[in-house]
Amino acid sequence: MRKLLTSPAQLSLSDSENNIFQTALKYIADLSLNLMAVKVTNHPEDFLGWCKELHRICKHDLNMDLLDEKQLAPLKKLQDTLELGISLTQLKMVRIAPWPIFSSIIKEQAELQSLTERLALMDYISQLRTQSLEQMIEEDRLVFSGKHTVKHDPSIYQFDVEWFGSTKGAKTFHNLLQTHPQEFDHALAHIPLEGEVNKAQYQGFVKGFKAIFSQHTDNEKAPLVAATRLLAMRRPDVFINITNNNLSVLCQGLNIAKFNNQDFDSYYSDMVLSLHSFHWFNQAAPTDEQELQLWNIRAILVDLFLYADETQAQNSNYIKLRDKPSRTTSGVVKAMKRSKESAEMLVDKALEGDDIPEYLIDMRSTIVNSVKDGKTVEQAIGLMRTIFG
Questions:
Q1: Which residues pair with residue 333 across a beta bridge?
Q2: Rounded distance, CA 245 to CA 233, Å?
Q3: Mean pLDDT of all residues belonging to the chain
Q4: Which residue in 235, 270, 272, 357 has the fewest CB atoms around it within 10 Å?
């Protein structure tokens, strides 16, 4: 263990990595006796591997029964420090990696980072992108804007809506999006669906986005975080979705000055243009179909270089909703009423499947009514199959 704990001192560390190492040493001092009792067999020769191995030991190998209560705080801080080290070191790769390495890292972390679910979300977004927000049903508008709800029928929405960045805490944003969707459409119209996005086009979006808040709120400032969600869904090959939780680490990892949640200029000039200068971003589109799928959303994929807990995939809102339906205190499944428009849209999507028999298509109205009254699409179709199949 002593060799593992001191091994980064023999490595050529960047300033940020050295700061992580020195911070970790402070917390290691409070846990040294406990750590020394752990047998170490893996001795990574790089800083990323060191952070991952020590983090694994802290989470799984320490004898928690031997820890004093006062040691729990430094243990948590050590784990947080190592998670930051993992993120910063992986983001350092983003700054220097060519496309083959960039994409290979994403594939290596596919299970940990729920890549299949994320790609399902982006495939769904690609179908929404040509629609206006005003025309979308409520569920689809929330997919685009990043807020998962119990209305997202897991038989239709087979992904967590909030991958790449949740906006569920942006209440004013969602209220305005519900009441004035056409104004958000006008703002997004400045961003072309294909080709280069220049500064003037971005500034046109920002002006329109800010105007919505200035006109319809009591001087509430427009949130950059929510704006980047819309931008990243509109053009995932150009914009990255930031959140209040990842903003600081992204700035550190990409080696740019930290900015705040109202600094639209720095987001574009520092973060977006920095991404556009990296080698992997500027490679020609690959011919391989799987590679092209990633390349077409390459800017937003930087999110996958942030630390991911081993339980992250199972904490997907989609999985939790699929496996644990909402129940009332009496134990009865609670029905979720839908608008007729939403019910029709969801049922029509389900009936497009190749395995749907003609008799189910003929029963569309009955299925729509069942979904409108609270059943999931899967439940409604399943009932019809049981009775008439």
A1: 327
A2: 19
A3: 91
A4: 357
